[in-house]
């Protein structure tokens, strides 16, 4: 059980830290209009780190099912949904997190499960 909790926490930390780094290093604020190029970069970058988050979650948890990845999905989508309703400005980052990044984290876990079978 501890491995599963640690896996989810680590997976979420990878997602959050990578997101914070992207916006800090680029100087772009996450809740303001951004160029299409930056939105596309964010899509690719976020997709890669979400996949990695799901992958690491599953590696640490060492389970043969996707329960931990579904929990990671709920946490990612839940915080993004909360942020969507609480923030002012544009919502493109939250929408990406809810509809793209959260589901991709499940695929990361599925990749590890299929690879170890």
Give structural attributes.
single chain; mainly alpha; 0% strand; elongated
Reconstruct the topology from this structure.
Elements (H helix, E strand, L loop, with lengths): L1 H25 L9 H26 L5 H20 L5 H25 L1
Helix pairs in contact: 1-2, 1-3, 2-4, 3-4
Task: Explain what the structure shows.
The protein is elongated and about 45 Å long. The chain has 117 residues and is mainly α. Helices cover 82% and strands 0% of the residues. The relative contact order is 0.19. Helix 1 packs antiparallel against helix 2.
Query: SSE string, helix = H, strand = E?
Result: HHHH
Query: C-alpha Rg, in Å?
Result: 14 Å
What level of helicity do the residues show?
over 70%
Largest beta-sheet characterization:
none
Tell me the structural class. mainly alpha
Question: How large is the count of helical segments?
Answer: 4
Report the strand count.
0
Percent of residues in β-strands: under 5%
Poorly predicted tracts of residues: none
Ends: how far apart? 21 Å
Shape: elongated
Q: On the 0-100 scale, what is the average pLDDT?
A: 96
């Amino acid at each position: 059980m501890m491995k599963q909790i640690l896996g989810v926490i680590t997976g979420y930390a990878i997602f959050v830290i990578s997101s914070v780094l992207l916006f800090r290093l680029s100087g772009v604020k996450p809740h303001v209009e951004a160029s299409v190029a930056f939105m596309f970069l964010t899509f690719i970058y976020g997709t890669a780190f979400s996949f990695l988050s799901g992958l690491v979650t599953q590696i640490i948890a060492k389970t043969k099912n996707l329960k931990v990845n579904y929990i990671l999905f709920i946490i990612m989508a839940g915080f993004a949904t909360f942020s969507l309703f609480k923030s002012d400005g544009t919502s493109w980052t939250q929408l990406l997190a809810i509809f793209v990044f959260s589901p991709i984290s499940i695929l990361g876990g599925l990749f590890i499960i299929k690879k170890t079978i």
